[in-house]
# Entry
Amino acid sequence: MARSLAEAARVLRRRAGALPYLILMTDERRGGDPLAAASRLPPGAAVILRHDGVSGRASLAASLGRLCRSRRLRLLVARDARLALSLRAGLHLAEGMRPPAPFRLARRRPRRPLLTIAAHGMAALARAHRLGADLALLSPLFPTVSHPGARPLGTLRFASLARRAGLPVAALGGVTASRVAAARAAGAAAVASVGALSGSR
# Structure
């Protein structure tokens, strides 16, 4: 039986340190139950809740928060700092976004919330570094179902960007269990996925 992405990603635990080494990104367009997918994640992994256009997002976020606490997972909310702060969760931002003042203030506390930022090139990585992000999600490493027209970075370009990023970088885009070793060799500190972890295609 083929190894799952969660099993393959264990090789990244030491490199990731205190950061999540495996990240599930929810996507309402791809289907799948975020709670069921999160319940299959190993301790030390993280969930980034997107589901922007879904009514009841706050309720879903609260349920995910309880599940993540019970399973020793990290929860991040995409693009909504107010919701993230209300849940004591981290915040994930799209490329070009900036964390609002209340979230920046919360990050001065001893138990500061995680901040991750999406990036597609060097300028975005440099900006994420300047903003003090804990982790940049660099994509797409490989061809991906989520963005079929996007040109993948490939391992050589990814490695070059990761070396110069100034902060840890997670590989996103087409990452499967069989590609974790390549992502790790290219300098990824973590891997992130939609379909390979949610059970969607």
Remarks:
- The mean pLDDT is 93.
- The chain has ten helices and eight strands.
- The beta strands are 22-25, 46-49, 74-78, 90-93, 115-119, 135-138, 169-172, 190-193.
